[in-house]
Amino acid sequence: MLGPGDDAAVLRAPDGRVVVTTDLLLEGRHFRRDWSSAYDIGRKAAAQNLADVAAMGADPTALVVGLGLPADLPAEWLDGLTDGFGDECALVGASVAGGDITRSEQIVLGVTALGDLGGRAPVTRSGARPGDVVAIAGRLGYAAAGLALLLAGRTGEAFQELTDAHRRPRPPYACGPGAAVLGATAMADVSDGLVQDLGHIAAAGGVRVEVDPDALEVPAELTAAAAELGEDPLRWVLTGGEDHALVASYPAGVRLPPEWRVIGRVTDGEGVQVTGRVEARGGWDHFRD
């Protein structure tokens, strides 16, 4: 209802409830200016917050952004960042409602996203029950492969789709509210790796999640990059983060649209089991070496 220009913005909350999430991005840890343009950074910062809102089954409505910027940063860089935020928000009908800016020795972005549930119950991590199926929407492993390629200096055209995936993720936003309508019992944004984020669902629900690796898609792009770097592409799919796919559990028998593919099931027990693989842990943890 009222955007930037006053001391605060005014937003409509038709549902009467507001979904809210926030992320902090630091230069050198979450992005590098020699790898990503200001526009890319804006798109990525917006995407990872908007995906969290979608993972609750809500429609994103707005972002507020806090920026710490070096004094010598060109104004054109800030213009690119702003354009990136705006274009990513436009994908979901959201807007940048305002924010704050201060001087900082390094670039710091604090992004808060807001969303509306549209009368639906939020889809939390804790609702999975034995007998549910587990399904994924979106891409897995692309951003992790892209990061590995960038670290190795393999930035040629042959791998551009993967390096672009690290710079600018493509979350399946519409699948979040869609999952709520379909009756998803639990859902999470895959930001830290499939195994780790499924572990959050398992722990919250007091259940075990069994993943069938044969049901996971390993695209040719990942296979080619893995051959180039001597890596296992399935490892990227299982433990790579920042693609911001959505993973959800559904009651058995629910007819899922093609955007969702079943990759496992929920059983009694605890933790995550990847059938046929010793490794059943992995993913990003900010405080683990």
From TrEMBL:
Enumerate the residues binding Mg(2+) 3: D7, D52, D189
Q: Which reaction does it catalyse?
A: thiamine phosphate + ATP = thiamine diphosphate + ADP
Sequence ranges assigned to domain PurM-like C-terminal in this UniProt record: 129-275
- Which residues are substrate-binding? H30, E242, W284
Q: Where is the PurM-like N-terminal domain?
A: 5-115
**Which CDD domains does the record associate with it?**
ThiL
Alphabetically, the GO molecular function entries are: ATP binding; magnesium ion binding; thiamine-phosphate kinase activity
Q: Which keywords, in A-to-Z order, does the entry hold? A: ATP-binding, Kinase, Magnesium, Metal-binding, Nucleotide-binding, Thiamine biosynthesis, Transferase
User: Family assignment?
Assistant: Belongs to the thiamine-monophosphate kinase family.
Reported function: Catalyzes the ATP-dependent phosphorylation of thiamine-monophosphate (TMP) to form thiamine-pyrophosphate (TPP), the active form of vitamin B1.
Q: What is this protein called?
A: Thiamine-monophosphate kinase
* Naturally occurring in which organism (per UniProt): Sphaerisporangium melleum
Lineage runs: Bacteria, Bacillati, Actinomycetota, Actinomycetes, Streptosporangiales
Q: Which gene encodes it?
A: thiL
